[in-house]
Amino acid sequence: MRTAAAGRDARGRYRSDDLMGDLFAGPYLFLAPELAFVLDDGGRPAGYVLGTADTAAFARAYRERWIPRLAGRYPVPASPSVSPDDQMLALHYRPERLLWPGLRQYPAHLHIDLLPAVQRAGHGRRLMETFFAAAARAGAAGVHVCVVAENVPAIGFYQHLGFEPAEPAGAAEPAGAAEAAGVVYLGRAL
After folding, report:
1. Fewer CB within 10 Å, N side or C side of the chain?
2. Average pLDDT, the chain
């Protein structure tokens, strides 16, 4: 929650502080634990990187196994989604949003979060390198991230690690770009 608002603290923004973890951490721990790595500051978790080597398979498993696992915890949002909770839940109930033409080149994807106290000390790079090696061993040729465009520091971090704007061959923009306005896709070969 401390980095869930484009890198800033999101505590108190949603009705439940569990929401972001249930949508952006829990499914990876449940569906792809072999690609989840935690940074420990000596007494508690201070950051993590997690993801999947196969985004298409992950989206299917999310629908088949993760959504039912959370049944009853989060209602299907009203349409149109207006509140911050409803906007996040709309993502939860539509895992197919993860499918875009760039998956052929960048089939893996990840999420990384570090508490502010441990940022800019090389921990993020080490976590990412650990993820890159594990995803490559799992057969992924490349990895992508989808970043809120206003999170300029995160975009710079990814670019520093070799990520480039990811525009699938033959496509002017990623699939669903109109509905995903305000996000940037970046990709990197493994």
Report:
1. N
2. 85
Q: Which residue has the tokens 């951490």?
A: 25
Burial class (CB in 10 A: 0-12, 13-18, 19+), 128: buried
Q: Report how far residue 41's alpha carbon sits from residue 45's, in angstroms, rounded to the nearest whole number.
A: 6
Q: pLDDT tens across 161-187, in order?
A: 999 999 754 444 444 443 345 889 999
Structure token digits, residue 125: 């790079």
Q: In CATH, what is the architecture of 19-189?
A: 3-Layer(aba) Sandwich (3.40)
Q: Are 123 and 159 in contact (CB under 8 A)?
A: no
Contact between 166 and 174 under an 8 Å Cβ cutoff? The reply is yes
Q: Locate the domains of the chain by residue range.
A: 19-189
Select from 111, 146, 90, 87 the least CA-distant residue to 28.
111
- pLDDT, tens digit, for every residue of 92-115? 899 999 999 899 999 999 999 888
CA atoms within 13 A on the CB side of 180: 19
